[in-house]
Specification:
This protein is elongated. Among the domains are: 87 residues, Winged helix-like DNA-binding domain superfamily/Winged helix DNA-binding domain (Arc Repressor Mutant, subunit A), CATH 1.10.10; 108 residues, 3-Layer(aba) Sandwich (D-Maltodextrin-Binding Protein, domain 2). Helix content is 47%, strand content 23%. The strands form two sheets. Strands 3, 4, 5, 6, 7, 8, 9, 10, 11 and 12 form a ten-stranded mixed sheet that branches. It has a two-stranded antiparallel ribbon with strand order 1-2. The mean pLDDT is 87. The protein is an alpha/beta fold.
Length: 315
């Protein structure tokens, strides 16, 4: 019978590939090569004598058959993970797989170190990260497709989420080393009216923090000379380094560029450009031992990382 042929590891590959929409990304998450993922999917399709995915130039999408079995496969895989984690409790082990969604620049700098240190303590817990937009990560958290979100947003659409403050990020102004402000140290908000500025998109946490703070100084968005809008702090840092304007980026990005003598950081008198990052979970979903371990570990680890970063910068 077909049931005897089911392999939970193959089903997990199918599930991750369906959620990622790309075999290469699925391989990255599962620590497999792209050809290995393709072979496993092909094996499943041969077993069922059905095409589970439709291939296109940019990736893959589920066929009608794939969409029909996806909810059942997700349930099987999640149940198998719960069984493994519950058995591990009786063996004094913490095992499992945890998925974090992230839509913030600071998170991209915080998560790799956090995950590395977490896995030193819990080597049998695998942590995967999905970087995407705010709408996508919160929708997946709400639908229980991922376990946590690291974000600076608190959307109004969801009432079943718990927000744990973990990090106070700061948006800072950066200029090229050859810019006149590189040696000023401090400027005033009105000074921003006279220079080309490179900004993030208006719906990003970085842009919202800047514009809200400037409006408190009677500076409206349309008064700024926005030279260009870019989709990441890293892109802004490169454009500023190339002399295309001044820019605002996460402090974590600025510190790295400053340490490599690429950019200078400039303070703005009277502007509070801080915004808080949260670790978020869905209260409807029971906490397994592996998830509870990460929920407890993350705020302490990130707090210590922030202390270390501040001490290094002061030094």
């Amino acid at each position: 019978m077909v049931v005897r042929m089911l392999d939970l590891q193959e089903l997990e590959v199918f599930l991750i590939a369906a959620e990622a929409g790309n075999f290469s990304e699925a391989g990255r998450i599962l620590h497999l090569s792209q050809p290995a993922v393709s072979r496993i999917i092909q094996h499943l399709e041969e077993r069922f004598a059905l095409h589970l995915f439709e291939r296109n130039g940019r990736g893959v999408r589920l066929s009608d058959a794939g969409q029909a079995v996806l909810p059942m496969v997700r349930e099987l895989v999640l149940m198998a993970r719960r069984v493994e984690e519950n058995i591990a409790q009786f063996q004094d082990r913490v095992v499992g797989r945890v998925m974090i969604g992230c839509n913030t620049t600071a998170g991209k700098y915080l998560l790799p170190g956090l995950i590395g240190r977490f896995r030193q303590k819990y080597p049998q817990v695998y942590v995967d990260v999905m970087y995407s937009s705010q709408d996508v990560v919160f929708a997946k958290l709400h639908e229980t497709e991922i376990d946590f979100v690291l974000t600076s947003h608190k959307p109004d659409d969801y009432s079943d989420l718990t927000y744990l403050p973990v990090y106070m990020d700061e948006v800072v102004l950066v200029v090229s080393r050859s810019h006149p402000w590189a040696h000023h140290g401090v400027i005033y908000p009105d000074d921003l009216l006279d220079v080309p500025i490179i900004m993030r998109e208006n719906d990003s946490a970085t842009a919202k923090t800047i514009l809200n703070s400037l409006q408190q100084h009677d500076i409206a968005p349309e008064m700024l000379h926005v030279e260009m809008t870019l989709g990441s702090s890293e892109a802004i840092a490169i454009a500023v380094e190339d002399g295309l304007g001044v820019g605002f980026v996460s402090r974590l990005v600025a510190l790295r560029a400053h340490a490599h003598n690429r950019l200078a950081m400039v303070s703005i008198e009277g502007l509070d450009l801080r915004h808080e990052l949260f670790f978020v979970r869905n209260r409807r979903v029971p906490m397994t031992p592996s998830k509870a371990a990460l929920w407890e570990f993350a705020p302490r680890d990130i707090e210590q990382m922030q202390v270390n970063t501040d001490q290094t910068h002061k030094g």
